[in-house]
Amino acid sequence: MPKDHGIGASPKRREDLRFLTGAGNYTDDINLNGQAYVHFLRSDVAHGKINKVDTSDAEKMPGVLRIFTGADFEGVGGLPCGWQVTDRFGQPMQEPAHPVLAQGKVRHVGDPIAAVVAETPEQARDAAEAIVLDIEELPAVVDMKAALEDGAPKVHDDLTSNLCYDWGFVEENREAVDEAIKNAAHVTTLELVNNRLVANPMEPRVAIGDYNPATDESTLYTTSQNPHVIRLLMGAFVLGIPEHKLRVVAPDVGGGFGSKIFHYAEEAFCTFAAKQLKRPVKWTATRSEAFMTDAHGRDHVTKIELALDADHNFTAIRTETHANMGAYLSTFAPSVPTWLHGTLMAGNYRTPLIYVNVKAVFTNTVPVDAYRGAGRPEATFQLERVIDKAARELGVDPIELRRKNFITEFPYATPVAVEYDTGNYHATMDKLIEIADIAGFPARRAESEKRGKLRGLGINCYIEACGIAPSNLVGQLGARAGLYESATVRVNATGGIVVMTGSHSHGQGHETSFPQVIAEMIGIDESMVEIVHGDTANTPMGMGTYGSRSIAVGGSAMVRATEKIINKAKKIAAHLLEASEADIELKDGQFSVAGTDKSVAWGDVCLAAYVPHNYPLEDIEPGLEETAFYDPANFTYPSGAYACEVEVDPDTGKVTIESFAAADDFGNIINPMIVDGQVHGGIGQGIGQALLENCVYDENGQLLSASYMDYAMPRADDVPFYKVDHSCQTPCTHNPLGVKGCGEAGAIGSPPAVVNAVIDALQSGGYKVDHIDMPVSPARVWAAMHG
Amino acid sequence: MTQVTMTVNGKAVSGEVEGRTLLSTFLREHLGLTGTHVGCDTAQCGACTVHVDGKAVKSCNMLALEADGASVDTIEGQANPDGSLNAIQAAFQEHHGLQCGFCTPGMVMAAAALLKENPKPTEAEIRHHLSGNLCRCTGYHNIVKAIMAASGQDVAAVAAE
Fold it and tell me: What is the total count of domains within chain B?
């Protein structure tokens, strides 16, 4: 019998009521009195010298309030980068300036040159067209390897080259890895591309700046996954506004997937301009603007070598990756190909020696940063593709090769600096084999073949590190932030509870799942608990939602604060019951004295805290409100095994997904319905990456895929129903809920399964194809089949 | 500026618009009906789907003036008269057919148009019908399931939660 209450139940989401009736409050739904609108004039060349920006005609256009250019931002800070990577020679990465509006040069299509603020959006747009630009186009660098050649055009003239950093991990293992590969019984090598993607939350970004001259306070309404982070970055590093004079509100946010973590120029501009003009200033991105300004994702080019001994034990892995940074360093960009990627190269396997080399490269393209999974999909894709290739080369079953090398004892310290606390990779594989009906595959393949189709089965495993992250560890690795989370639990006099969390919900359903935890802890109904998030004015300092961290880190902070509440409430109950605090038990919302029938209800204790007529005032303060900051001791390590079956039409090269199954281990689960939904969505995005999505620049740096007409998003008829299971649960050992996080797993685990399945299908038809880069489009499949 | 008059969710409304004003802009900015969302510029994502004279239309791809005299229904008018969720909305909640909620109004309006024409659509028919509505959160699984459930079909038989 499934639970109907508390942890493990699946209550229907309370936020759905407003979203289903059109009553959500997204940033673009907010309109402030006296609001003006900004339109950004953006570069249409990838690289150019700005000779002149003539705004004189535009300024005379109807409704124009002011036109800003880069000159207006001299003396204002640039957009900061939140992570400094140290290269393999011990030197800091090259870190270019990133002005709010371009100064001197434009460096990618979409780089903002001027900003027109006018009474209406149409007037702003019309006036922007009247600005006369004199931009001398310069040769652009788009290809990463070409960008590193001697004499390549430099994206930033003041840097020594286009190399951001050359990172080696673990550098001390380099020679040992080289030696192990030289001496291996078998080495499988694979060169692959992890295709450049655009996160594409359905809500485009929006920013509204507001300024109150009476109080000298600025407010920014923005589509953010982490309003406190934006407040800190923008206040301290760009505009010089102290945090107590700056409020950042991220109301209902229509999806993020990483792209709304970062601090963007438009946020700083609107806040800055609102103060200058003493009027609210609003910006709403068009989708094309989103394509050329939202940080992109992935874009790695990798060579991976897997060494095996004669018994097929993995002995070493060596990788060389070029990772695109784009034209500027987005907020967390340097961490993605390094600490979120290199540390995951052990995967689910015992490989004693690993060396990862990453060259991060500046190009004349949009900045690249975290997108759902961020570094971990790239690691998983390399590893799971090369293992499949090795199995094929060695003539062994790909499942058995994986099983032979599975890590089976925990905790397990990998050679890439992380320690997995728990996991059971055989169990998730067993579960996958059951739910995907692997045994029935030969019959299904025979049936497909009768219809002239090639059927393939692709399997892979994944591990991810989430719940980001222990602050002392990430500090050593170059993070310029702590990565704790906070929560304030405010109990009202009549027993209702408001939780103010630094986590942010933009689809994850925190308003429903977080109350389940408190309801379980206290034994009250979930309807007595309300979650408040997304506004720096009423929530404590928070680091926000990314890296599948909300329940593991934010939820843990809430648990710690609730524990403090319960401890204090027990003291109050002990006083009311004239008993020893040590004898007080809390169950089902009742405090009772152990071994007696004396009890007092939750609500009575809460009332006593706020009406302290009979209260131990000499020992404790009135009131019942507690805050906790939780800094995790380790990452959490969700894992799983995925299977995809595809059909390939040999006449056209078209791939269809026939089935997709996922067996995940997320540790303990708060709301299974929401967890299923997170996995479904991740798989949908992973199938999108594998089959459809590709962000394409031409050799001049023109973005060819800047709309949904050109960038192929997965649609309902591109995907099947998914089979998902999370009954294998090895709880996390170091957080109070034993949870691991589930937000990114689907996107991490699914691309290799799809590609492995396509290769399997082609091989079954006698085609000697051992790799096709994503997206595995009909044209690419056809080309691979026909040499 | 030109005067435009239409019926929106059963109420007569009018306003002054430019020739280039989109129906989605008129609904959102002039009437304050912000449940209709704009997710792209190219009539691809379907977040702005409304009904015009009973037919599903992408309101970012229609001028307000083209809807002069028409009857327009938006997400704000979909609930039952007592304020409770209608069958499609209720099925979306029951089957977790939404996450961030941004595509949801368009999905509900697209589903309503489908079920009006085809009261018991197959999975394939639903997926085909939704191909003009993008969702980035759900992988479509629970949306398809919710629409099947709203049409009275037993979804436990076709897809696990």
Answer: 2
User: Do A726 and A767 share a domain, yes or no?
Assistant: yes
Q: What is the CATH number of the domain that holds B146?
A: 1.10.150.120
CA A283/CA A267 separation, integer angstroms: 9
Facing residue for A719 by CB, picked from B29, B35, B139: B139
Q: What is the pLDDT of residues A601-642, one digit of tens each?
A: 999 999 999 999 999 999 999 999 999 999 999 999 999 999
Q: Which of B54, B76, B98 is the last residue of a domain?
A: B76
- A275: CATH: 3.90.1170.50
Is B60 part of any domain?
yes
Of the candidates A739, A713, A609, A748, the residue with the CA atom closest to the CA atom of residue A202: A713
Residue B48 lies in a domain: yes
| Contact present, A288 and A366 (Cβ < 8 Å) | no
* ipTM of the complex as predicted: 0.98
**Are residues B111 and B72 both part of a single domain?**
no
Q: Go through A10-34 and write b for each residue having 16 or more CB atoms within 10 A of its CB, e for each that does not.
A: bbebbbbbebbbbbbebbbbbebee
Tell me if chain B has a CB within 8 Å of the CB of A15.
Answer: yes
For B139-152, the pLDDT digits (tens) are: 999 999 999 999 99
**Both B71 and B92 in a single domain?**
no
Type of residue found at A156: H
In a domain, A391, yes or no: yes
Interhelix angle B141-150/B87-94, nearest 10 degrees: 140
State the alpha helices, DSSP H only, in A28-157: 56-59, 121-129, 144-147
Contact of A18 with B93, CB cutoff 8 Å: no
CB contact under 8 A, A26 and B102: yes
Question: Measured between alpha carbons, how far apart are the two ends of chain B, in Å?
Answer: 51
Which of A125-139, A466-480, A575-589, B30-44 shows the lowest per-residue confidence on average (mean pLDDT)?
A: A466-480
Show the domain range for B140: 87-150
Low-confidence ranges of chain B (pLDDT < 50): 161
Kindly list the distances between the CA atom of residue B105 and the CA atoms of A16, A24, B94, B98, B117, in Å, as whole numbers in the listed order.
11, 10, 16, 10, 19
- Interatomic CA distance for residues A108 and A292, integer angstroms: 8
Looking at chain B from residue 85 to 124, which residues have their Cβ under 8 Å from any Cβ of chain A? 85, 89, 92-94, 96, 98-105, 108, 123-124
Distance CA B135, CA A254 (A): 10
State how far the Cα of A316 lies from the Cα of A309, in Å rounded to an integer.
9
A547 touches chain B (CB under 8 A): no
CA dihedral of residues A208, A209, A211, A216 (deg, nearest 10): 130
- How do beta strands B55-58 and B49-52 pair? antiparallel
Q: Are B135 and B103 in contact (CB under 8 A)?
A: yes
- Closest to B105 in 3D by CA, of B9, B10, B17, B4: B9
